[in-house]
Amino acid sequence: MKHRVIYPRPLKKGDQVCVIDPANAFTEEGIRNARAFLEGNGFQVVISEDMAFKRGTAEERADRLNGVLRNRDNRAVLCMWGGYGTIPLLDKIDYEALRTNRPVFSGFSDITAIHMAIQDKTGLVSFHGPALYSPKRPVTPDAQRQFIDMVTEPWKRKELSNLNGEPFRIVRSGTTQGRLAGGNMTIVSRLMGTPYEIDTKGRILFLEEVGEKPYRLHGMLYQLKLAGKFDDAAGVIIGGLTGCDDEGRPGSGEEAVRTILEDTDIPVICNVRAGHLSDPLTLPLGAEARLEGDRVIIIGA
């Protein structure tokens, strides 16, 4: 279902932000680093330590998540990192609280499931943002600054560029406009055939992945193709394909993408560095965006 675009209340210094972990389990090191990053940017930090995946049933975890969402003092609800465990929460989330309170909501990877449900149920712009702490891929200061810029001025027009200077690469050139939708390719695939299946009609579909071989990328993309998701879409952005090349064999993650998407009739851009990376771009899912050749522009309100 399409809803009008709703922007979250912009974050400002002094605001309370709540860190949750619906797809994994907190570590003390993670808590220390997340707190240091957020407090260093002037926010009051609350850690919802009982939100971790391994603590309680889906119903219990959803109840705790809803308590966080219903608390209007929480101007942002930020996921520590990805993991596994969000899909069982989708039919239990208080989406009306999200629509009413309009917090900044950010996360990536398995959190894609919640992003997709938020877009379907509310129209609230949410952020495919970096991990608050990652020992495997420490997030760079540039990526942290871009995240803060995005959530403090969520309605502002912005043109994106990779933080490491690499260019975006065109698979199919063109100009198009639509709301951003998507996230992790595996989660998008898992939700096909459910009430939370991705709606691509008139939208720019963003997909990223980590640790999947090219043949698995090919299979997931072909599933979307057979389902007509590229026929309906306004365009496609391919984000990071981290660890998706098949070492010792011909072919790469990007080649698998090109095999499926180079004969579509819509603009397609790859190497937009968002996803499982140390320098990920933050993308405002649900916001209007425009593709112009190799340019990605967030239009804003």
Automatic annotation (TrEMBL):
<dbReference type="InterPro" id="IPR027478">
    <property type="entry name" value="LdcA_N"/>
</dbReference>
<comment type="similarity">
    <text>Belongs to the peptidase S66 family.</text>
</comment>
<dbReference type="GO" id="GO:0008236">
    <property type="term" value="F:serine-type peptidase activity"/>
</dbReference>
<dbReference type="InterPro" id="IPR029062">
    <property type="entry name" value="Class_I_gatase-like"/>
</dbReference>
<dbReference type="Pfam" id="PF17676">
    <property type="entry name" value="Peptidase_S66C"/>
</dbReference>
<dbReference type="InterPro" id="IPR027461">
    <property type="entry name" value="Carboxypeptidase_A_C_sf"/>
</dbReference>
<dbReference type="GO" id="GO:0006508">
    <property type="term" value="P:proteolysis"/>
</dbReference>
<feature type="active site" description="Nucleophile">
    <location>
        <position position="109"/>
    </location>
</feature>
<dbReference type="InterPro" id="IPR003507">
    <property type="entry name" value="S66_fam"/>
</dbReference>
<keyword id="KW-0121">Carboxypeptidase</keyword>
<feature type="domain" description="LD-carboxypeptidase C-terminal">
    <location>
        <begin position="177"/>
        <end position="291"/>
    </location>
</feature>
<keyword id="KW-0720">Serine protease</keyword>
<feature type="active site" description="Charge relay system">
    <location>
        <position position="276"/>
    </location>
</feature>
<keyword id="KW-0645">Protease</keyword>
<dbReference type="GO" id="GO:0004180">
    <property type="term" value="F:carboxypeptidase activity"/>
</dbReference>
<dbReference type="InterPro" id="IPR040449">
    <property type="entry name" value="Peptidase_S66_N"/>
</dbReference>
<dbReference type="Pfam" id="PF02016">
    <property type="entry name" value="Peptidase_S66"/>
</dbReference>
<dbReference type="InterPro" id="IPR040921">
    <property type="entry name" value="Peptidase_S66C"/>
</dbReference>
<feature type="domain" description="LD-carboxypeptidase N-terminal">
    <location>
        <begin position="17"/>
        <end position="129"/>
    </location>
</feature>
<protein>
    <submittedName>
        <fullName>LD-carboxypeptidase</fullName>
    </submittedName>
</protein>
<keyword id="KW-0378">Hydrolase</keyword>
<feature type="active site" description="Charge relay system">
    <location>
        <position position="208"/>
    </location>
</feature>
